[in-house]
Amino acid sequence: MAKGFYISRNMGRFGLLMGAVALVTIIALSAVYDKEKKKNKLVYGVGLVTTTWPTLSLTPTPKNPWNLYRLPDALAPVTYNITLWPRLQVNQDGLYIFTGQSAMLFECKKQTDLILLHSNKLNLTLINGKHARLTGMDGAEAPAIQNSWLEGETEFLGELADDLEGFYRSEYTEGGIQKVVATTQMQPTYARKAFPCFDEPAMKAVFHVTLLHDKGTVALSNGRDIEIINTTINQTEVTMTRFEPTKRMSTYLLAFIVSDFDHLTGSLESSVLVRIWARRKALADGQGEYALNVTGPILKFYERYYNASYPLSKSDQIALPDFNAGAMENWGLITYRETALLYDPEISSVGNRESVATVVAHELAHMWFGNLVTLKWWNDLWLNEGFASYVEYLGADYAEPTWNIKDQMVLYDVHKVFAVDALASSHPLSRKEEEVNQPAEISEMFNTISYSKGAAVLRMLSEFLTEPVFARGLSSYLNEFAFHNTVYTDLWDHLQKAVISSPEINLPHTVHDIMNRWVLQMGFPVVTIDTTKGRITQKHFLLDPDSVVDRPSPYNYTWFVPIKWMKSGEVEEQHWLLQKAEIHSPMVTSGSEWLLANLNVSGYYRVNYDLDNWQRLLNQLDTDHTAIPVINRAQILDDAFNLARAKLINTTLALRTTRYLSQERNYTPWESALRNLNYYILMFDRGPVYGPLQAYLKQQIRPLFDHFRVLTFNWTRVPTGHTDQYNQINTIYLSCKMGVDACQDLTLSWFRNWMMHPYRNPIHPNLKTTVYCNAIAAGGVREWEFAWMMLRNSTVATEAAKLRSALTCTKVPWLLNRYLEYSLDPAVIRKQDATSIISSIASNVVGMPLAWDFIRARWNYLFTEYGRGSFSFSNLINGVTRRFSTEFELKQLRQFKEDNAHIGFGSGTLALEQAIEKTTANIRWVQDNQQDIINWLNTECR
Ligand SMILES: *[C@@H]1O[C@H](CO)[C@@H](O)[C@H](O)[C@H]1NC(C)=O
Ligand SMILES: *[C@@H]1O[C@H](CO)[C@@H](O)[C@H](O)[C@H]1NC(C)=O
Ligand SMILES: *[C@@H]1O[C@H](CO)[C@@H](O)[C@H](O)[C@H]1NC(C)=O
Ligand SMILES: *[C@@H]1O[C@H](CO)[C@@H](O)[C@H](O)[C@H]1NC(C)=O
Ligand SMILES: *[C@@H]1O[C@H](CO)[C@@H](O)[C@H](O)[C@H]1NC(C)=O
Ligand SMILES: [Zn+2]
After folding, report:
1. Where, in this chain's numbering, is Zn(2+) bound (predicted)?
2. Is residue 494 a known part of a binding site?
3. Is the pTM of this model over 0.85?
4. What whole-number distance in Å separates Cα of residue 743 and Cα of residue 715?
């Protein structure tokens, strides 16, 4: 799945997930029969045909196989014959349902007296007297379940609910007509909601799928359709679409979709059919073109990279109005959220375009890695998702070579996951198979560590092996295990083979030994280089130096660290740090020579130096920053700010890394700086530091603002460079926030122009979010009322979202208070948007105390109406308490906890505890650093 998965999942679906645990039931087909008869080898005659399906409860007595979540390994499915019939109109009970039949052939590998399958008790009802039939091949009497092939058959009925899991429905309106799509999301454990099956990734089989559907609708599945006929079943006229049998595959990759969507067609070298499916109106507006244009090149890139042709006869990609994850890599029929596949050049921003390219590249990467070769069990999910999250950059880079998108991985994955992995509460990438059993434990694996740390350590591996060697090992892995399953060490084996056949690659240890240290222990090292002695040391990096690590590590928190480095611009030979401390004399510098380690942040670690080397690096930044590679300029900022938080260097040294920014024109270092300075702004925007901080940042951003004015011909165009477009957005955001007058004038004039001509919005889609917000912040009631009218009038979801959030930017207290009231009135604000408005008001420095009062005054109401079982509640608490940094606020927070203990905090309970902890840490940080920061800023402001 694409990254959006765990984000959206955390936001809203947690309640459902927890609920699902109790509902998963394993069907036992033959638990009841006479043990004596087994010896006569005729047990399974009549007896079984009439055996009812006992629905066994999952009480925690581990003794019986049906009380475990995992299936026994005695039986292996071979083929399934599935017919499904979703009804797109409600039945007489007002329900959307589907019916189905499934016949399966399975092989008995070990003698057993039990046939266990997964089925979801709540969603699936077995019909026809609740019987399942078991026969020998070709309907013969069933033999004993011992080294033989058997056929089982079931009929069932399920609800086509709007729960976004299993076989579900998605609704939308087109041309005033309400339309329904029947679609699926099987990963990780929802195939069992669509039909009874062996729902484990290693229980691969061939699927023969037939869909029955209303005439005039289109049915899609993993394979190409091979027969479409109109027929009458039970007095209903339907179309029957039969699909070619799939390759041998896992249940979680199945997809069945019925819709009245339209499509665009392209092709990959004539033989592979490539199609983009979406709502008719969206395709008529040209929104599918971009995805179609990038799909061909990306597939071609992967064929070369993996050295293996695309394994299927077609590649369908479909945009769904209701979809939980960002996207899902169903083999041959990838499903997407609309924003991840559709791109409208008129309305969408540069960021929307980039996410289409990267999400498509991510999902297509899985067609081989994950689908053709599948990890045996969910404990190795990090390898599947980390891999796709890494190579998506390579695929997208091939389709959009001018974007330099590979560089962005450092910001979007490496720096992002450093923040999580630097906490004592982190966890290793790999978990033991037996630790991951229940659906909730499986869903937990879809987290930032799996995706982003997985991607970061695989990128490091590919960098030290070199890409050709990495790709060679990968290709031999894919060939050997095609249509089968693996564990992560199988990949290490094949990479090791590739290393052995490449004499130019010298590793200090095997791929296994090196990688296990990154995979089996949590966290990452900070490497400290003392350039006066050439001494290198490593230490587990912890953001809070006082935190206690109670998770033991098999390697005692030391790593084998590949160090790419340069001396005054000259790239030196890579060095491996294999001990806790060692001397590497080439790293001694002399005179004004500076040393820079972890070139391009290809290694997953932070770097610290002796003070003199820091000074020389800073001098280099001041005199000619281009001598230092652009990714490392971003690294120096991010490392310095985080080393300061961890008390390894002084805060003023971290601030010093921002001094050269007045000369920086590149997006990556600026973005890195903004992310780190954001904490300063939050901590200080209500106190004495803010004046000097604002003056300093205004002085730093001003040259960039002027740069973009010239580059865009007085703001009449958008920069052509991809990251320049992002940088322009950041520039306007920071310039207006720091009070660059020309910026205020510019955004307000654009907005007033729009107010005069409401039907002709002059603001470029890239800039809408920041321009709306600034104009409303700088303006008054008129600006606010206009935006409110445009919001109430808006029919485009993305536009409405931008306006909704911009309305929280006003500095007028009564407008903010009124908006807070509106947020709880379902007649004006949809319930799903309420908490995001409240936390967004809290992120406004004027709005924060208002939102805090509002929440405290209405806790009871908020909690009963919005809070129970939903994750958005923890976002609310996080949002409102983000600035808290005084003793008084800490006291209020504790009081709040006490006052409302009888009501409770639901899913916000943990967030409240964390808020108290973070506030305590903020108070300490402000006390320790405030004076130094004021002094430093005062000397820097000219
Ligand atoms: C089935 O019926 C629909 C609607 O009447 C028609 O458009 C379609 O061409 C028919 N398909 C076949 C294969 O006959
Ligand atoms: C048709 O109706 C019969 C009797 O209600 C039922 O047993 C059968 O399963 C139905 N067929 C399909 C394909 O739904
Ligand atoms: C660092 O990245 C840049 C651009 O992404 C590339 O041109 C350069 O060769 C890389 N340097 C090293 C030492 O890998
Ligand atoms: C931009 O505006 C400035 C001042 O108003 C003017 O001098 C300059 O010629 C303009 N540049 C362009 C390219 O229009
Ligand atoms: C707002 O909506 C009304 C009713 O749909 C429409 O008549 C009007 O033109 C819209 N105004 C703007 C500024 O879009
Ligand atoms: Zn994925």
Report:
1. 362, 366, 385
2. no
3. yes
4. 11
